[in-house]
Amino acid sequence: MPGDVPHPAINRPINYVKIVTITTIVLGVLTTLFVAAPYALPLLQSRNLWAAISLFTIILFCSGHMFNHIRGSQYVGNDGKGGLSYFAGGFQNQYGLESQIVAAICEFSRCWTSCVSTG
């Protein structure tokens, strides 16, 4: 098509469905936030909840989660006999499941210690 031929201007109509959809979603989110705020704020301001989240994160990262994430370690390995190996040998190797097992053991021992000491 030659470039000299004039073309009519294209004017698209207003998309009312998009306007109504976005308005409904925004009003729904705002309504949900205002209705749920009295229930969610005490939960978000709970010292016990944040202490548990912090402790879990510290234990998870200390158990080698970031080591596995940075190095891209395997989740489990094979033992050479057709089975699975959950713990890697040596000091510079670690499987993904190994860090989760260590984190679970640490969390269980923390829970057990706190139950015995308070109970």
Core attributes:
mainly alpha, two-stranded antiparallel sheet, 63% helix, 119 residues
What would your notes on this structure say?
The protein is mainly alpha-helical and 119 residues long. It has one domain (16-118). It has helices at residues 16-44, 47-62, 65-71, 96-118; strands spanning 77-78, 84-85. Strands 1-2 form a two-stranded antiparallel sheet. Helix 2 (47-62) crosses helix 4 (96-118). The model has no long low-confidence stretch (mean pLDDT 85).
Secondary-structure topology with pairs:
Elements: H1 16-44, H2 47-62, H3 65-71, E1 77-78, E2 84-85, H4 96-118
Helix pairs in contact: 2-4
Q: Give the overall shape.
A: flat
Overall residue-averaged pLDDT value: 85
Q: Helix-strand pattern, N to C?
A: HHHEEH
Strands, total number: 2
Strand order of the largest sheet: 1-2
Tally of helical runs: 4
Rg, please? 28 Å
How many separate structural domains? 1
Q: Give the termini separation.
A: 87 Å
What is the SS-derived class? Answer: mainly alpha
- Oligomeric state: single chain
Biggest β-sheet description: 2 strands, antiparallel
Low-confidence stretches: none
**Percent range for helical residues?**
55-70%
How much beta, percentage-wise? under 5%
